[in-house]
Specification:
alpha/beta, Rossmann fold, 2 domains, homodimer, three-stranded parallel beta sheet
Chain lengths: ~290, ~290
């Protein structure tokens, strides 16, 4: 079928734009750089940071990863962030979630200098997003979904959008992006979540459905308006005795069935995931550009 | 009819709580204080600031108003704000909108120290609101609407809420308050605006309808689900030859007709307006309490 929104291909378009910006910065003597901070031994975190490191290297962005033990205290981590904030050679700082329980993610994210907050998690950047102030950094996953919609030619102006999930990383900022006064937004957005009375009814009226609930294959074919655009942000590990290691990853959308009804749909993997990394690289280069200008 | 949500009475409840907190602060030697800054001669601004001054005085909050000429430059205004930020006797700073065109409201609001931003307009406070981080200050009008809903016994948990308007002062923060994970929120929220395809259809499915469009008597009786709670945030001046001065103020809701269909409804005036001032006073006392603690 040809109704796939190819996140890998669109991410590659963005990567090539980003690589050009890296080249331009280097010709002016600026080496864009991104610092990863990873605490503890979470295997998924290792994989994510590894993928981001590889992409950074491919685009000419210098990256380095500080790995701290699980026993790191909050004040030790804060001290490291203050040091990175002060280091003018570091343009972007990414503290990989999840952090150990004894460390407050809120405290950590609000300590990263907003100008280096390439994850877009600092309250000031979140506030700027909501206010429509474009001087901030957008969180990578919702910004990536937005780019997918733009570059797949999806009309957002006046569209009915339903966002499933109200998390701080995807659901809330996704809604904030799409209600802005902008021809690539201007959508009528409804945010649904675990307390919503009739999620299916909302889904069925959506021109664009964005699933970020964290619930395996929650979105079924009978919840889709024929022709709707369906974006699957979910990454859920489910047990499957037939799979290697006894488990496999699935999205929030029952892909095979939904694909038959949807106008366009993201595969998963190969949809939103590559876009998150593309936006992170774009944010990093922009941080370097802004610092070079100032 | 008895389906009115009496904003004046609820504001008085809050005022008496605030006055008690003022007394407690004074007994510890802290005089809560609020500084108003007004630029130019906008007559509505004079009225608004005057009302806020009077309420502050009644509650025992010290207030002062700095009136600057229309010709004030942005850097002069910024210099004043920096001075007030540094003055430990000033707990709250309110720069009354609208500002003259040559001054960027964005620059001004983001210069007020977040800890003194009792208007809740600083990006950091807006971001904290969105993230569900309760250490920030909420913007007064949507916080006042939220209090009206709570104190009128309106069930928000699981309710379908439609917010008309996507402004930075009411619509967007209102939606952000009501989608939070909280028993006094947990609503399924849709934000409608000028680009929405069928506003009436959305309104008709709302358990709670919050009108903040700035469009005189836009909401008609046939747009209301019988029994719905209707909150009118609008303040619009319309010409009326029969009225004193040739004009009068109306809300965004066609009150007389809508009241017959609604379960509960705010009068206008006497609904949201008094609550905005009540929340401003509450924010100011909280700012003083937080500074006293630190």
């Amino acid at each position: 079928m040809t109704n796939l929104i190819d996140g890998r291909a669109i991410a590659e378009q963005i990567h090539s734009e980003t690589a050009q910006r890296v080249t331009a910065l280097k010709s002016r003597g600026v080496q864009p750089s991104l610092m990863f901070v990873r605490v503890g031994d979470d295997p998924a975190s290792k994989v994510y940071v590894g993928m981001k490191e590889k992409t950074a290297a491919r685009l000419g962005i210098l990256s380095e990863t500080r790995v701290l033990p699980d026993s790191t205290t909050e004040s030790e981590l804060l001290a490291l962030i203050h040091k990175l904030n002060a280091d003018s050679a570091v343009h972007g700082i990414l503290v990989q979630a999840p952090l150990p329980r004894h460390i407050s993610e809120t405290n950590i994210y609000s300590t990263v200098l907003p100008q280096k907050d390439v994850d877009g998690f600092h309250p000031e950047n979140v506030g700027k997003l909501m206010l429509g102030d474009k001087t901030g950094f957008l969180p990578c996953t919702p910004a990536g979904v937005h780019e997918l919609l733009i570059r797949s030619g999806t009309k957002m102006d006046g569209a009915e959008v339903v966002v499933l999930g109200r998390g701080n990383i995807v659901g809330k900022p996704m809604a904030a992006i799409l209600i802005q006064k902008d021809k690539n937004a201007n959508a009528t957005v409804t945010v649904c979540h675990s307390k919503t009375r009739d999620i299916s009814a909302h889904c069925r009226r959506a021109d664009i459905l964005i699933a970020a609930l964290g619930s395996p294959e929650f979105v079924k074919a009978d919840m889709i308006k024929p022709g709707a655009v369906v974006i699957d942000v979910g990454v859920n590990r489910i047990s499957d005795p037939a799979a290697k290691g006894g488990s496999r990853l699935v999205g929030d959308v029952d892909f095979t069935a939904v694909q038959k009804v949807a106008g366009k749909i993201t595969p998963n993997p190969g949809g939103v995931g590559p876009m998150t990394i593309a936006m992170l690289m774009q944010n990093t280069v922009r941080a370097a550009e802004l610092l070079a200008k100032s």
